[in-house]
Amino acid sequence: MISRQTSQKIAFTLLTLAAFVVVVPIVLVVGYIVVQGAGAISWEFLTAMPREGMREGGILPAVVGTVVLTFGTAIVAMPIGIGAAIYLAEYARDTWLTRLIRLAIINLAGIPSVVYGLFGLGLFVLFLNFGTSILAGSLTLGLLTLPVVISTAEGAILSVPQSFRVVSISLGGTRWQTIRHQVLPHALPGIITGVILGLERAAGETAPILFTVAAFYLPRLPHSILDQTMALPYHLYVISTQVPGMPVEVQFGTALVLLILVLSFNVIATIIRSHFRRLRQW
């Protein structure tokens, strides 16, 4: 019979091996992108307009377009997602309807992004006549992001101890005052995590923006939310598959910029989470 110490060592070894199997391929992929694309990174590459059919110049319109779409997604998804999470966690009763809504949210998170793209094309581009624009793309990406934001934000709110609510209400606070001053500040790290995860997914999506906003070649910056724009995911797809003679270094350089942009969201989220976790009282 295996002793407790032996079983713990075996379990620890298997978990370490599993983590190693997951982490090593990611490190190798990231390292390969850095090695192949670092040579293309320069000030001109980041700040210049594309020229000669995107074979020369820079990727500034794609970078700006990605940032604008990400902020547009945040503006759409954060108020609705956090508001829905507050309602489901604090106000909604546990009925068959709320359980059905939670199940629908989970299922929506697993729908392929191309379906959201077709939905955005039909609703925002054609029916509401927004055209292929930043507005249509942001709304589509916002819908794509909502399930992640709602699920993680609700989980963060429910993780706050019930005693916080009881004490606040017993001292005369209203339900909203309790949520505003006791629940949300302590749930904020988890809420921020959900928002950043959703924005990271939105920043790296190609299919939704392909139908609603992305331009194949647009060597200028957008001037309004009704303009088209280039975006890094679609730009990377285009220069890798549709432009003959594109230098491999430029392809990997574009991938590296997108990777840095997405990882920067993680860094910002980690800093914010750490700050608010230090303020926790439990």
What does it look like?
- This protein is mainly α and 282 residues long.
- The protein has one domain: Orthogonal Bundle (MetI-like fold), CATH 1.10.3720.10.
- 75% of the residues lie in helices and 1% in strands.
- It contains 11 helices and 2 strands; from the N terminus they run ααββααααααααα.
- It has helices spanning 4-37, 43-47, 60-91, 96-109, 113-127, 134-158, 162-170, 175-204, 207-212, 232-241, 248-278, and strands spanning 50-51, 56-57.
- Strand 1 and strand 2 form a beta hairpin.
Note the overall shape: globular
Q: What is the tally of beta strands?
A: 2
SSE-based structural type: mainly alpha
Euclidean distance between termini CA atoms: 41 Å
Query: Which strands sit side by side, in order, in the main sheet?
Result: 1-2
What percent of the residues sit in helical stretches (DSSP H or I)? over 70%
What is the compact description of this entry?
With 282 residues, this protein is an all-alpha fold.
Sequence-ordered SSE layout with sheet pairings:
Elements: H1 4-37, H2 43-47, E1 50-51, E2 56-57, H3 60-91, H4 96-109, H5 113-127, H6 134-158, H7 162-170, H8 175-204, H9 207-212, H10 232-241, H11 248-278
Antiparallel strand pairs: 1-2
Helix pairs in contact: 1-11, 3-6, 3-8, 4-6, 5-6, 6-8, 7-8, 8-11, 10-11
Q: What tags apply to this protein structure?
A:
single chain; 282 residues; mainly alpha; MetI-like fold; two-stranded antiparallel ribbon; 11 helices; 2 strands
